[in-house]
Amino acid sequence: MTQAMTQDQLKQAVARAARDYVAETIAPGAIVGVGTGSTANFFIDELAAIKDRLGGTVASSEGTRKRLEGHGIRVLDLNDVEDLPVYVDGADEIDGGLSMIKGGGAALTREKIVAAVAGTFVCVCDQSKRVATLGRFPLPVEVIPMARAYVARELEKLGGQPRWREGVVTDNGNVILDVHGLTITAPAEFEARINQIVGVVTNGLFACRGADLLLLATPGGVEEYR
Ligand code: 5RP
Fold first, then answer.
1. Where are the active-site residues found (predicted)?
2. I want to staple 104 with a disulfide (CB 3.0 to 4.6 A). Which of 49, 92, 158, 221 is the partner?
3. Contacts of 193 (CB under 8 A, 6+ apart)
4. Comparing C-alpha atoms, which of 29, 32, 25 is closest to residue 89?
5. Is 191 considered catalytic here?
6. 191, 179 contact by CB (below 8 A)
7. Exposure of 182 by Cβ count < 10 A (0-12 exposed, 13-18 middle, 19+ buried)?
8. Ligand 1 mean position to 67 CA, how many Å?
9. Distance (Å, whole) CA 90 – CA 109
10. How far, in Å, from the CA of 1 to the mean position of ligand 1?
11. ipTM topping 0.95
């Protein structure tokens, strides 16, 4: 009898597929953007096997920077990088148009910055992250601390139920509001709308700049969607 794959085995499989994608597509000495979270951590561990072929990496969080450096992988300041051909990161939800909700690990702002610079965004997920419509996962919004209550009231006007992720401070010194109760049918418009609220740093919708390639781990193998 074949045993069902665990979620960690699925994450490991997709991390390996992403490593192979990077090895096959980037030029020797190129820089790789690296995401944050448990799936990204599996990717970092796989990336160690090809570290000598990389010019270095850019990290999307302090946690990722530490893990990369722990493997002896060079981490560069994004300001010193002009060409970033690829960025590999996980997601909390991803829809059929490759729009995502991200930020479960509170790294959304740096993730969005690295994604903006990258030529190709490769999203690595297990099949539990695939959804028809975004919103069941509470949408993280990074907020300047003094604006927390005001932004929460504005988010309520947009139909959400914001909850302060108490005790969490982002790498940028800000706080997170997780917005529950949303059904996001027009992700790019909603992303732009939330970012207009004064005090919002950014929100976890990655729709204006979604993924270019989804590597999706299923028990039958890693599937590709573009
Ligand atoms: C962190 C993120 C992560 O990519 C997202 O939370 C998915 O994490 P995991 O791979 O652990 O499920 O956006 O801010």
1. 111
2. 92
3. 158
4. 32
5. no
6. no
7. buried
8. 15
9. 14
10. 32
11. yes
Burial of 120 from C-beta contacts in 10 A (0-12 / 13-18 / 19+): middle
CA-103 nearest atom, ligand 1: 14
Residue carrying the six token digits 């939330």: 194
Contact residues for 71 (Cβ-Cβ < 8 A; gap 6+): 44, 45, 47, 48, 51
Per-residue pLDDT of the chain (226 residues; tens, 9 = 90+): 457 889 999 999 999 999 999 999 999 999 999 999 999 999 999 999 999 999 999 999 999 999 999 999 999 999 999 999 999 999 999 999 999 999 999 999 999 999 999 999 999 999 999 999 999 999 999 999 999 999 999 999 999 999 999 999 999 999 999 999 999 999 999 999 999 999 999 999 999 999 999 999 999 999 999 9
| Ligand 1 neighbour 95 (Cβ under 6 A) | no
Place of tokens 């561990």: 45
